[in-house]
């Protein structure tokens, strides 16, 4: 059974078909692809955009979304087999997923890292356990990657450039400062999809500590080999921005300090100047700026950048609605 | 673009049209005015009646309500422009409102005062910021006024008196005791709409400290000038109730003590006898009693008053459903 | 007006009709029995299965469920008449229920015991108060009984045995260990419905302290008198399991220790061996196993039992959807 866990699991042809269907839904929002169908949206972490766009999207296609928020922190679910469950966990994922799958036709899962041990968080256990036990398709609503955001971003770029072919565009994924160590999910995803689309990708980050996990660096390398384009890592702001067609900003915590965030803080504080501002954007090839939101203004990007006509972050956010309707449709009735 | 922030922003003809449409929906609950449309209900404070009536109302008209509850306390949103957002706020209202408006056709906002500084709370910043940045109509679901409650109350009075013309009725808005200093929103609203409808309005409160903000006293004075009727402030229970056709009860905190509530407490405690009881109601012109709910029985009003056939509080609460359907319809397709 | 508070209030013919309608909905999920209708689901305690199955069920029949979660703990509602409400309660159940009933066509209520005083909890005050004041039908979504679970279980047994007639089956309701003292609701319900269906019922529990409340023991005795079958209490695992056709497991707190749970703990800890395991199931007549979920694996039942083809817990959970649709339909348009 197909799931939508990562774009990397899907063929390029299928991703292109998803994007085309999303563009169709943007022009023609109502439909009946989910008539009588239900999706459970399981949020282990809070959400506003994801929840609203999935819920409205299901409604516009004749379906219904059930929003389940097991709590801000850990839901006491057991994920291992063979455990004597005499601790906190009241239920095993095997039952949770199998029962939900009897009620609904799709299951979306948001489960952020716990930010204590990356070697554990990188296993993406919650998402994978749902995919293992569910008898209906599972959708990643952001765990350690964020594939829905990827498609929304690509659609926004395709709209901006007036073409579905993004090859040859210079794409800069720039780390920015944020007072807290954030999830790498959107950074992993941006790297993955930008290389998949054959763009010339620069990962701009302050030091080598901010390079992303080898899984995603590996996916990017594989994508470059298959799709053309290029990948480079840079710590130099000026050369990275020079001639860029796309600047995509995100903050994330440095993996070598994962779970040991106090030790990262002095390093992080040195790089507040990675903020996206008008001076940096002036170095680009009249490039567009985007971000997955939420964004702290004048910390990650200046008001001038956010309020510029070259900022496509609102369009990207809107596209979440359209691409998610395409993903739900594809999983229910195929492409 | 039209919003529904305060009845005072709407013409009397449009308010009358809303009330007529609400009366229609009361007779004919189902319709398709919101077919395929979505409304986001953003609750910064909890709700049961407002949430249920909006959600059911949208459903009955073919639409869908997405309920967003950013938390009981403050949602870390920045409202000022130009701020360096390195504190608690993760997102600027400009992005929140603009993105929501891409997903839905209407946005409802409930944002109570913070009860610390009335000079700030009276700016109604959250509601106004949504109205500023949203590209779809915004509805006030209670902030420092409560216009949906106003229309529900007027509809209940029109039903009770068997006429849409309420001129000449004696309307008493009476302060009542409550152990906590409550929002003035419903009091502001009752004063506003009762004068708008041309009634003879008495604001009955224990002392001059309980007079409402000058903005709403000013709206009331303006309404009297334009619609006829009259307005007086009274601290005398007997003369206020004498001959009343309508007694509308509400408790609120005294504005001169705003944020300094311990100092108000001794004053407030002296006025427990403002409770609406059978003896006071006997002074009226066979008047009706109402309240916006929730109501503490035998504190704000006695069981005898609440369970009397002259109590129209349940009918008023039901009318929330009908008037809100009218407001949503008007904002989507005009009157 | 009919409510669905307990199966014991319904005639056997009506229960059979509900089960038949549920079986119909299992084959034919979509319908219009709730077209334009709304149900309020009032959860005083958290839920995943109940909430999802009611919400999806209403949707599949053209209706809409509004989920109200007044909080994990007590919602400050007053239930007595005549009280001066100057404490915590902001609202009286009379207003809550009457207003909700103006907005929706059905009200579901989940209200667990408070686990302090069984003589109070056994009054089922919250559910009964809703039933008293609501002018629309009320459904028990689990309080001190769980009638929806009863019907789901019976439907699963009927499916398993290929007949609607369960007379002559040996039904064992076995207490199991759990680290916490749980609600007796599902145990009360299992005893009630198994005797109602005329089965030969054994209540297996460690000691006489774990015998259920006399109300439910009384219902069971009455059912045996009317429907045939039998009822016995046993503290002997081997003879209880011997020849069983159905093993239904549940943990619950011993009523003599209600509210004094530390004193129960040493007693409870002696009976961890009540776990349902393969050895015990081997004593049965190729019996089926079920449980209402959530279930702690290897505490209440072993992995081997849960993952066996004789476990029908997932089917029972699925049936919640179907029986609840039948209940909602029956309450709206009759059987």
From TrEMBL, chains A, B, C:
EC numbers listed for it are 2.1.3.9
Q: List the protein's name.
A: N-acetylornithine carbamoyltransferase
Q: Which positions fall inside the Aspartate/ornithine carbamoyltransferase carbamoyl-P binding domain?
A: 3-159
Q: Give the N6-carboxylysine positions (modified residues).
A: 300
Residues with site note (Key residue in conferring substrate specificity for N-acetyl-L-ornithine versus N-succinyl-L-ornithine) = 90
Under the subunit heading, UniProt states:
Homotrimer.
Origin species, per record, is: Thermomonas hydrothermalis
Q: What biological function has been recorded for the protein in this entry?
A: Catalyzes the transfer of the carbamoyl group from carbamoyl phosphate to the delta-amino group of N(2)-acetyl-L-ornithine to produce N(2)-acetyl-L-citrulline. This is a step in an alternative arginine biosynthesis pathway.
Q: In which pathway does it act?
A: Amino-acid biosynthesis; L-arginine biosynthesis
Q: Which GO terms describe its molecular function?
A: amino acid binding; N-acetylornithine carbamoyltransferase activity; ornithine carbamoyltransferase activity
């Amino acid at each position: 059974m197909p799931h939508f866990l990562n774009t990397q699991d899907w063929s390029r042809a299928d991703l292109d078909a998803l994007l085309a269907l999303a563009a169709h839904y943007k022009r023609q929002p109502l439909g009946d692809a989910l008539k009588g169908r239900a999706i459970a949206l399981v949020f282990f972490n809070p959400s506003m955009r994801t929840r609203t766009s999935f819920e409205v999207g299901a409604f516009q296609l004749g379906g219904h979304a059930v929003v389940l928020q097991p709590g801000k922190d850990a839901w006491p679910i057991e994920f291992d087999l063979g455990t004597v469950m005499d601790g906190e966990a009241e239920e095993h994922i095997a039952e949770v997923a199998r029962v939900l799958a009897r009620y609904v036709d799709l299951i979306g899962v948001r489960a952020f890292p716990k930010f204590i041990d990356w070697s554990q968080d990188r296993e993406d256990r919650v998402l994978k356990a749902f995919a293992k036990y569910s008898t209906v398709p599972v959708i990643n609503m952001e765990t350690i990657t964020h594939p829905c955001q990827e498609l929304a971003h690509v659609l926004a770029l395709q709209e901006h450039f007036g073409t579905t072919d993004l090859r040859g565009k210079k794409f800069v994924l720039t780390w920015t400062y944020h007072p807290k160590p954030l999830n790498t999910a959107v950074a992993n995803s941006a790297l993955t999809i930008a290389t998949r689309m054959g763009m010339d990708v620069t990962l701009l980050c302050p030091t080598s500590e901010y390079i992303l996990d080898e899984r995603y660096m590996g996916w990017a390398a594989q994508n470059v080999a298959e799709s053309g384009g290029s990948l480079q890592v840079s710590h130099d702001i000026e050369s990275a921005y020079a001639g860029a067609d796309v600047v995509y900003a995100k903050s994330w915590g440095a993996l070598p300090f994962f779970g040991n965030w106090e030790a990262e803080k002095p390093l992080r504080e040195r790089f507040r100047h990675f903020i996206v501002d008008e001076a940096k954007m002036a170095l680009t090839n009249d490039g567009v700026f985007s971000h997955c939101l939420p964004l702290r203004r004048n910390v990650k990007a200046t008001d001038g950048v956010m309020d510029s006509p070259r900022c496509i972050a609102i369009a990207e956010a809107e596209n979440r609605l359209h691409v998610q309707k395409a993903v739900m449709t594809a999983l229910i009735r195929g492409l």
